[in-house]
Write a structure and sequence with these properties.
Helices cover about 45% and strands about 20% of the residues. The chain is of the alpha/beta class.
């Protein structure tokens, strides 16, 4: 699991790369890998500002936009995790991506599950 990505980005830290490499060293291309994106549930600063200013946009609409933005950001984070798997396991790695984000307070990144 990597949970140290910055706010609103999908850049992988060196510590994350090292942790994933150590974790994946036990597996080869015969395993199946699933990547689930992790987003915190704190929301987006710009959308929070709009919400607090009461500029005529319903709170429910801002919440919906935040949810959609998290889906896109989660997809980018999962892709970054999948690319890391390909780097350490090989181009033939069998990778699937979770359909939904994992929401975790103050955590941003991805989770890798391995199946036989």
């Amino acid at each position: 699991m990597c949970t140290d990505m910055g706010t609103g980005v999908n850049a992988i830290s060196e510590q994350c790369k090292q942790n994933v490499q150590a974790f994946l060293s036990k597996y080869d291309g015969t395993y199946f890998f699933e990547v689930a994106p992790i987003v915190d549930n704190g929301g987006f600063a710009s959308l929070k500002l709009i919400k607090s200013k009461k500029v005529g946009v319903e709170d429910s609409e801002i919440d919906r936009i935040s949810s959609l933005a998290n889906i896109g950001l989660g997809k980018a984070r999962a892709k970054a995790g999948g690319e890391l798997i390909e780097t350490f396991v090989g181009d033939g790695a069998k990778i699937s991506y979770a359909l939904s984000n994992v929401e975790k307070d103050k955590s941003k990144g991805f989770l890798i599950k391995v199946y036989r």
